[in-house]
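thought: fold this chain, then report.
action: predict
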Amino acid sequence: MAAGLTCYFDTSALLKLYLEEAESARVRQAVAAATFAFTHLITYAEMRAGLAQAARLRRIDGLELARQVEQFETDWSELRVITPNETHIRRAGELAQRFGLRGYDSVHLAAAEAVWQALPGVDFRFAAFDARLMAAAKTLGMRGLE
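observation:
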């Protein structure tokens, strides 16, 4: 990974690495450019659910599912994973109420905010593809992928 960029990836962003979707190229570029890539522990379950759903919907076949799960398992060890604590979960509750977010989206936002605040002066980006979540992140002062 190149120096200079720190990113937090929510599940909607990371799925674009394994399922070809609009914005997949942009996420791949961000991962390649990031010195540090963060996500939350809940992303693991969400990713496995998202990949399994892609197979159920026949976007990918069983062999591709197995290949993508194996690649995700390998990639997971490269991510800096934020583990839940009461402070973050309570902040997530505040953010959910303030911005009308779904529960796990607010957990991602609280985790990203904690990383961003812990690294002042760093080129930090929040990668997500939910409009309400990104609007909330920008209101808090975070930048998205460009």
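thought: worth noting. The mean pLDDT is 96.
final: tokens above.
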